Amino acid sequence: MSVLNAERIKLTSTKSPIWCSLIAVVVSVGFAAILAWGYSELESSGEGSMGEFSVASTQAGAGAFGSMLVMIMAALAVTTEYRFSVIRTTFQAVPRRTHVIGGKALLLAAIAAVLGLVVALLSLFVAQAISGESLSIGDGSNARELFGIPIYYALLAVLAVGVGTLIRQSAGAISLLLLWPLVIESLLTLIPKVGKYFAEFGPFNNMSYFLGQDGGVDFYWGPWGALLYFAAFVAIVFGASLFVVNKRDA
Questions:
Q1: What residue segments make up the domains of the chain, in order of their start?
Q2: Residue 46: helix, strand or coil by DSSP?
Q3: For the chain, what is the largest distance between any 2 Cα atoms, rounded to a whole number of angstroms?
Q4: Interval 106-155: pLDDT, tens
Protein backbone atom coordinates (compact mmCIF):
# COMPACT_ATOMS: atom_id res chain seq x y z
CA MET A 1 0.00 0.00 0.00
CA SER A 2 2.88 2.35 0.76
CA VAL A 3 4.30 1.68 -2.70
CA LEU A 4 1.00 2.64 -4.33
CA ASN A 5 0.80 5.79 -2.22
CA ALA A 6 4.34 6.77 -3.17
CA GLU A 7 3.59 6.20 -6.84
CA ARG A 8 0.41 8.24 -6.55
CA ILE A 9 2.34 11.17 -5.06
CA LYS A 10 4.96 11.02 -7.82
CA LEU A 11 2.32 10.79 -10.51
CA THR A 12 0.27 13.72 -9.22
CA SER A 13 3.36 15.89 -8.78
CA THR A 14 3.79 16.20 -12.56
CA LYS A 15 1.53 17.78 -15.14
CA SER A 16 1.95 15.26 -17.95
CA PRO A 17 -0.76 12.83 -16.70
CA ILE A 18 -3.27 15.67 -16.46
CA TRP A 19 -2.44 17.01 -19.90
CA CYS A 20 -2.46 13.57 -21.50
CA SER A 21 -5.84 12.80 -19.93
CA LEU A 22 -7.39 16.10 -20.99
CA ILE A 23 -6.10 15.79 -24.55
CA ALA A 24 -7.34 12.20 -24.72
CA VAL A 25 -10.84 13.33 -23.74
CA VAL A 26 -10.90 16.30 -26.11
CA VAL A 27 -9.52 14.41 -29.12
CA SER A 28 -11.64 11.29 -28.62
CA VAL A 29 -14.90 13.10 -27.97
CA GLY A 30 -14.14 15.63 -30.69
CA PHE A 31 -13.59 12.85 -33.22
CA ALA A 32 -16.88 11.24 -32.21
CA ALA A 33 -18.63 14.60 -32.61
CA ILE A 34 -17.18 15.12 -36.10
CA LEU A 35 -18.20 11.64 -37.24
CA ALA A 36 -21.70 12.12 -35.83
CA TRP A 37 -22.05 15.50 -37.55
CA GLY A 38 -20.89 14.05 -40.85
CA TYR A 39 -23.32 11.17 -40.51
CA SER A 40 -26.19 13.53 -39.71
CA GLU A 41 -25.41 15.86 -42.62
CA LEU A 42 -25.20 13.08 -45.18
CA GLU A 43 -28.35 11.39 -43.94
CA SER A 44 -30.37 14.62 -43.95
CA SER A 45 -29.17 15.70 -47.39
CA GLY A 46 -29.72 12.28 -48.94
CA GLU A 47 -26.49 12.64 -50.91
CA GLY A 48 -24.84 9.61 -49.44
CA SER A 49 -24.18 7.62 -46.31
CA MET A 50 -21.28 6.96 -43.95
CA GLY A 51 -22.61 3.51 -43.22
CA GLU A 52 -24.22 2.24 -40.06
CA PHE A 53 -24.18 4.51 -37.02
CA SER A 54 -23.05 2.22 -34.21
CA VAL A 55 -21.44 2.20 -30.79
CA ALA A 56 -18.21 1.05 -32.43
CA SER A 57 -18.18 4.11 -34.68
CA THR A 58 -18.69 6.45 -31.71
CA GLN A 59 -15.64 4.88 -30.04
CA ALA A 60 -13.35 5.13 -33.07
CA GLY A 61 -11.60 8.22 -31.73
CA ALA A 62 -11.16 6.68 -28.30
CA GLY A 63 -9.66 3.52 -29.75
CA ALA A 64 -7.39 5.21 -32.28
CA PHE A 65 -6.32 8.49 -30.69
CA GLY A 66 -7.15 8.43 -26.99
CA SER A 67 -5.25 5.18 -26.68
CA MET A 68 -2.06 6.89 -27.85
CA LEU A 69 -2.28 9.45 -25.06
CA VAL A 70 -2.74 6.67 -22.51
CA MET A 71 0.43 4.94 -23.70
CA ILE A 72 2.37 8.20 -23.67
CA MET A 73 1.19 8.99 -20.15
CA ALA A 74 2.11 5.56 -18.79
CA ALA A 75 5.46 5.38 -20.56
CA LEU A 76 6.50 8.82 -19.30
CA ALA A 77 5.67 7.77 -15.75
CA VAL A 78 8.57 5.32 -16.02
CA THR A 79 11.04 6.90 -18.41
CA THR A 80 10.98 10.28 -16.67
CA GLU A 81 12.22 8.61 -13.49
CA TYR A 82 15.08 7.03 -15.40
CA ARG A 83 15.90 10.32 -17.10
CA PHE A 84 16.29 12.19 -13.82
CA SER A 85 17.69 9.18 -11.92
CA VAL A 86 14.76 9.23 -9.50
CA ILE A 87 14.34 5.52 -10.06
CA ARG A 88 17.60 4.82 -8.21
CA THR A 89 16.28 6.50 -5.08
CA THR A 90 13.03 4.60 -5.45
CA PHE A 91 14.81 1.25 -5.71
CA GLN A 92 16.93 2.11 -2.68
CA ALA A 93 13.80 2.84 -0.68
CA VAL A 94 11.99 -0.24 -2.01
CA PRO A 95 14.58 -2.95 -2.84
CA ARG A 96 11.95 -5.24 -4.34
CA ARG A 97 11.85 -3.73 -7.79
CA THR A 98 8.97 -5.92 -8.86
CA HIS A 99 6.80 -4.18 -6.27
CA VAL A 100 7.78 -0.76 -7.62
CA ILE A 101 7.06 -1.51 -11.27
CA GLY A 102 4.01 -3.58 -10.39
CA GLY A 103 2.61 -0.82 -8.19
CA LYS A 104 3.20 1.74 -10.91
CA ALA A 105 1.46 -0.45 -13.49
CA LEU A 106 -1.49 -1.13 -11.17
CA LEU A 107 -2.01 2.54 -10.37
CA LEU A 108 -1.73 3.64 -13.99
CA ALA A 109 -4.05 0.85 -15.13
CA ALA A 110 -6.69 2.02 -12.66
CA ILE A 111 -6.34 5.64 -13.79
CA ALA A 112 -6.44 4.60 -17.44
CA ALA A 113 -9.57 2.50 -16.88
CA VAL A 114 -11.40 5.43 -15.28
CA LEU A 115 -10.24 7.70 -18.08
CA GLY A 116 -11.41 5.15 -20.64
CA LEU A 117 -14.85 4.95 -19.07
CA VAL A 118 -15.20 8.74 -19.10
CA VAL A 119 -14.03 8.97 -22.70
CA ALA A 120 -16.29 6.14 -23.86
CA LEU A 121 -19.44 7.49 -22.22
CA LEU A 122 -18.83 11.08 -23.32
CA SER A 123 -18.13 9.98 -26.89
CA LEU A 124 -21.35 7.97 -26.96
CA PHE A 125 -23.54 10.71 -25.47
CA VAL A 126 -22.09 13.49 -27.62
CA ALA A 127 -22.34 11.43 -30.81
CA GLN A 128 -25.96 10.54 -30.08
CA ALA A 129 -26.85 14.15 -29.30
CA ILE A 130 -25.34 15.47 -32.53
CA SER A 131 -26.58 12.72 -34.84
CA GLY A 132 -30.04 12.50 -33.36
CA GLU A 133 -29.71 8.72 -33.29
CA SER A 134 -30.29 6.53 -30.25
CA LEU A 135 -28.17 3.49 -29.47
CA SER A 136 -29.01 0.83 -26.90
CA ILE A 137 -26.05 -0.43 -24.90
CA GLY A 138 -27.83 -3.73 -24.38
CA ASP A 139 -28.15 -4.52 -28.08
CA GLY A 140 -25.78 -7.06 -29.60
CA SER A 141 -22.11 -6.24 -29.13
CA ASN A 142 -22.73 -2.64 -28.04
CA ALA A 143 -21.82 -3.20 -24.40
CA ARG A 144 -18.54 -4.87 -25.36
CA GLU A 145 -17.64 -2.09 -27.78
CA LEU A 146 -18.41 0.59 -25.18
CA PHE A 147 -16.96 -0.89 -22.01
CA GLY A 148 -14.11 -2.44 -23.95
CA ILE A 149 -12.47 0.99 -24.06
CA PRO A 150 -11.64 1.14 -20.31
CA ILE A 151 -10.37 -2.44 -20.51
CA TYR A 152 -8.22 -1.50 -23.50
CA TYR A 153 -6.84 1.58 -21.76
CA ALA A 154 -5.95 -0.39 -18.63
CA LEU A 155 -4.06 -2.99 -20.66
CA LEU A 156 -2.30 -0.25 -22.65
CA ALA A 157 -1.11 1.36 -19.43
CA VAL A 158 0.45 -1.91 -18.27
CA LEU A 159 2.01 -2.43 -21.70
CA ALA A 160 3.47 1.08 -21.74
CA VAL A 161 4.95 0.65 -18.26
CA GLY A 162 6.57 -2.56 -19.45
CA VAL A 163 7.99 -0.99 -22.60
CA GLY A 164 9.14 2.08 -20.67
CA THR A 165 10.93 -0.15 -18.17
CA LEU A 166 12.63 -2.13 -20.93
CA ILE A 167 13.77 0.84 -23.04
CA ARG A 168 14.13 3.46 -20.26
CA GLN A 169 14.19 6.36 -22.75
CA SER A 170 11.10 8.46 -23.43
CA ALA A 171 11.65 8.94 -27.17
CA GLY A 172 12.41 5.29 -27.82
CA ALA A 173 9.57 3.92 -25.71
CA ILE A 174 6.95 6.30 -27.07
CA SER A 175 8.11 5.81 -30.66
CA LEU A 176 7.81 2.03 -30.39
CA LEU A 177 4.42 2.21 -28.66
CA LEU A 178 2.98 4.51 -31.32
CA LEU A 179 4.64 3.02 -34.38
CA TRP A 180 3.67 -0.56 -33.58
CA PRO A 181 -0.11 -0.13 -34.03
CA LEU A 182 0.10 2.69 -36.58
CA VAL A 183 2.86 1.49 -38.89
CA ILE A 184 4.53 -1.81 -38.03
CA GLU A 185 1.44 -4.04 -37.97
CA SER A 186 0.11 -2.39 -41.14
CA LEU A 187 3.38 -2.85 -43.03
CA LEU A 188 3.76 -6.47 -41.96
CA THR A 189 0.38 -7.30 -43.46
CA LEU A 190 1.70 -6.23 -46.88
CA ILE A 191 4.34 -8.97 -46.98
CA PRO A 192 3.37 -11.50 -49.68
CA LYS A 193 2.09 -14.92 -48.55
CA VAL A 194 2.63 -14.32 -44.81
CA GLY A 195 1.01 -10.90 -44.51
CA LYS A 196 -2.40 -12.34 -43.64
CA TYR A 197 -0.92 -14.11 -40.63
CA PHE A 198 0.51 -10.86 -39.30
CA ALA A 199 -2.95 -9.35 -39.71
CA GLU A 200 -4.61 -12.22 -37.86
CA PHE A 201 -2.06 -12.37 -35.04
CA GLY A 202 -1.21 -8.68 -34.68
CA PRO A 203 -1.90 -7.78 -31.03
CA PHE A 204 -3.43 -4.40 -31.81
CA ASN A 205 -5.41 -5.82 -34.73
CA ASN A 206 -6.94 -8.29 -32.31
CA MET A 207 -7.85 -5.55 -29.88
CA SER A 208 -9.48 -3.56 -32.68
CA TYR A 209 -11.49 -6.68 -33.48
CA PHE A 210 -12.62 -6.87 -29.85
CA LEU A 211 -13.77 -3.24 -30.09
CA GLY A 212 -15.84 -3.93 -33.19
CA GLN A 213 -13.37 -2.98 -35.93
CA ASP A 214 -12.26 -6.20 -37.63
CA GLY A 215 -10.77 -4.50 -40.70
CA GLY A 216 -11.99 -7.32 -42.92
CA VAL A 217 -9.61 -9.81 -41.28
CA ASP A 218 -10.80 -13.37 -40.66
CA PHE A 219 -9.55 -14.03 -37.12
CA TYR A 220 -9.09 -17.49 -35.66
CA TRP A 221 -11.19 -16.71 -32.58
CA GLY A 222 -14.06 -14.54 -31.46
CA PRO A 223 -13.85 -11.05 -29.93
CA TRP A 224 -13.26 -12.33 -26.39
CA GLY A 225 -10.53 -14.62 -27.63
CA ALA A 226 -8.96 -11.57 -29.26
CA LEU A 227 -9.03 -9.76 -25.92
CA LEU A 228 -7.33 -12.70 -24.20
CA TYR A 229 -4.71 -12.77 -26.96
CA PHE A 230 -3.92 -9.08 -26.47
CA ALA A 231 -3.86 -9.52 -22.68
CA ALA A 232 -1.38 -12.39 -23.09
CA PHE A 233 0.81 -10.17 -25.27
CA VAL A 234 0.74 -7.45 -22.60
CA ALA A 235 1.54 -10.01 -19.88
CA ILE A 236 4.57 -11.29 -21.82
CA VAL A 237 5.98 -7.79 -22.36
CA PHE A 238 5.34 -6.77 -18.77
CA GLY A 239 6.79 -10.03 -17.46
CA ALA A 240 9.93 -9.44 -19.53
CA SER A 241 10.24 -5.95 -18.05
CA LEU A 242 10.05 -7.33 -14.51
CA PHE A 243 12.74 -9.88 -15.31
CA VAL A 244 15.04 -7.28 -16.87
CA VAL A 245 14.57 -4.63 -14.18
CA ASN A 246 15.69 -7.12 -11.54
CA LYS A 247 18.77 -8.11 -13.54
CA ARG A 248 20.34 -4.82 -14.60
CA ASP A 249 21.50 -1.70 -12.82
CA ALA A 250 19.15 1.25 -12.46
A1: 2-245
A2: coil
A3: 66
A4: 999 999 999 999 999 999 999 999 988 888 887 778 899 999 999 999 99
